[in-house]
Amino acid sequence: MIPTVLPTYARAPLSFVKGEGAWLIEADGRRFLDLGAGIAVNALGHANPALVAALTEQAGALWHTSNLYEIPQQKRLADLLVEHTFADTVFFTNSGTEACELAVKMARKHFYDKGQPDRVEIITFDGSFHGRSAAGIAAAGSEKMTKGFGPLLPGFVHLPFGDHDALGAAITDRTCAVMVEPVQGEGGIRPLPDACLKGLRDLCDEKGILMILDEVQCGVGRTGKLFAHEWAGIAPDIMMVAKGIGGGFPLGAVLASEDAASGMTAGTHGSTYGGNPLGCAVGCAVMETVADPEFLAEVNRKAGLLRQKLEGLMAAHADVFDSVRGAGLMLGLKCKATNMDVVNAGYDNQVITVPAANNVIRLLPPLNITDDEITEAVRRLDAAAASLAT
Ligand SMILES: *Cc1c(COP(=O)(O)O)cnc(C)c1O
Q1: Interatomic CA distance for residues 182 and 359, integer angstroms
Q2: How far is the CA of 241 from the centre of ligand 1 (A)?
Q3: Gap from CA of 242 to ligand 1 centroid (Å)
Q4: Could you say which residues bind N(2)-acetyl-L-ornithine here (predicted)?
């Protein structure tokens, strides 16, 4: 008989009943160090007091009214995002997938309104992940995600990861945008080098097309800048955000320049829940913490500490691990052992990591993890690796 919960997930046999900062407490009382943060979502840890206060205060006042009316919390969060980024305007969603949907619509509408209705194609890259909607799976294009779900939404052109020459040749007068993750998450923590991102920006400018960055996983302080593209000193035209921005409350956003967003006039897009008072109240609390330069400096310092300890781990367990990669507190350990075996050995040692493609395990701890917790996490990873030694 089919389970009452549709069995689309391969779940670990763990059920957590409480969270405290970087710790998750299992129903049986065991305490796990959480280097997954709900897949880069709990950016400020579990049960963060500032976030709990923002949510409960809002919950006691007003939950939902719809976008038929002004939502002051939404305006405040949009103002914060605009103040701290390239963007002139923001649309709020409930997830990264919905942000992808709007990014696609916005790019196409931009050119439609400029009298170029044939510019509908969006270039994407192998190994990318943009969500599980019809547009999201068509954008990523992998067989794993698309098989059996056709006909796929047309208008996506898939290129090899990081092949600049292929990219130049693929841009035609039907191209409206390039969509890329500055650091691929699901694809196995693959950062696009700064020079590539700069080259991509130049190419988009030269060809007059839009640059869409998917910062759903790598954004909101994860790499040590508020948004990952800042490392390359460039700005996109459209950016997808979700995961960390809600700190665990479902919230996403599309940020855009005024020009890129010019087609999105009244009635062209909408969402019942998107930008509701609860989500935006929490989003404001997240932004007020993460956008602080001192907070980001601490993320970078801790990232350096973790990275250094992980290099030691690599050296000590060359039979289990191949290499470390990533940026800030978005790190991937390429494994020699099967990545799922390493994740499971982590569970046995009460440390949580997240598998990704390319036989990688991801370390995406809360951004406010402490130095002592980093030391303890690596000690537990060391024990997990030792248990796998061949
Ligand atoms: C998780 C993710 C998405 C999809 O976000 P959901 O909130 O799961 O819909 C899109 N893009 C990237 C890069 C992601 O990591």
Answers
A1: 20
A2: 8
A3: 7
A4: 132, 271
Give the number of the atom of ligand 1 that is nearest the alpha carbon of residue 186: 15
Q: Which domains does the chain have, with CATH numbers?
A: 16-34+294-389 (3.90.1150.10), 50-290 (3.40.640.10)
**What whole-number distance in Å separates Cα of residue 41 and Cα of residue 242?**
8
Q: Is the CB of 121 under 6 A from ligand 1?
A: no
The pTM for the full model equals: 0.98
On whether 97 is known to bind a ligand per the annotation, the reply is: yes
Phi and psi (nearest 5°) for 155? 105, 15
Handedness of CA 35, 41, 46, 49 (dihedral sign): positive
Buried-exposed string 116-138: b where 16+ CB fall within 10 A, e elsewhere? eeebbbbbbbbbbbbbbbebbbb
Amino acid of residue 138: A
Q: Which two tokens stand for residue 366?
A: 């809360």
User: pLDDT tens digits, the chain, 390 residues: what are they?
Assistant: 999 999 999 999 999 999 999 999 999 999 999 999 999 999 999 999 999 999 999 999 999 999 999 999 999 999 999 999 999 999 999 999 999 999 999 999 999 999 999 999 999 999 999 999 999 999 999 999 999 999 999 999 999 987 888 898 999 999 999 999 999 999 999 999 999 999 999 999 999 999 999 999 999 999 999 999 999 999 999 999 999 999 999 999 999 999 999 999 999 999 999 999 999 999 999 999 999 999 999 999 999 999 999 999 999 999 999 999 999 999 999 999 999 999 999 999 999 999 999 999 999 999 999 999 999 999 999 999 999 987
Q: Is residue 97 in contact with ligand 1, taking CB distance under 6 Å?
A: yes
Task: Return the ligand 1 atom nearest residue 39 CA.
Answer: 1
Phi and psi torsions of 48, nearest 5°: -60, 125
